[in-house]
Design brief:
Alpha-D-Glucose-1,6-Bisphosphate, Chain A, domain 3, 11 strands, 7-stranded mixed β-sheet
Length: 269
Amino acid sequence: MNIQRVPTAPIAGMKPGTSGLRKKVTEFAQGHYLANFVQSVFNAVRPVGGFRGLTLVVGGDGRFYNREAIQTVIRIAAGNGFARVLVGAGGILSTPAASCVIRKHGAFGGLILSASHNPGGPDGDFGIKFNAANGGPAPEKITDAIYAQSLSITEYLVVDAPDIDLDRVTSQRVGDLAVEVIDPVADYVELMRKLFDFAALRALFASGFRLAFDAMHAVTGPYAHVIFEHELGASAGTLRNGTPLPDFTCLPASSRSLCAAHRGRRRQA
């Protein structure tokens, strides 16, 4: 495996909070910005023995730049010696689902690409946060360490490899790294069955109960579709706007063509 050490320099303003680092898409996508931050995370949390044998979870809310960022994260994870990456199909993993996957699969932690309610699209926001092995957001001592690393970074480690196929649930490799594309919903639904009385809820829907769930073309859509319509028997059409889209609405003129291109890529996959 050919690991490249790419020279870089600190970039100002990379101080994350408990919700991670949030900036404009244009800022994340320029130069070494994303790579610098990901490497700073790995530098800050690296165990004494390195990442050998450890698993990283990766996924996001489907906003613009989500797929490209995931490819970068995977290459840098390979360069830093992780053994395995679990990534949600389509690049999708909601924050609660990512927490579930981290804990169920005994992962070292996860990188979640989300800016929550912030607007998406080419002119919108992007975000990335590190969740620890307990599935929860990194505590302040870790976010402070990440920021300190971002102020002194001189290089990032990356494997030069083709993009992986994010749209098939399958196993692939990037150098020595095993990349498993997983169903982004299955583990979360399994957890929900343990937390809620699905039999009682199915009976409620069977009795004629109706609801409308508007996912607003964000990340909750795939989860709501499986849980409400498949698991609980809600009528077809209960879920509205359930397909995650890069800007969540595709309304801004600046992103209509990009959203159309995105939908075209999904149809071809």
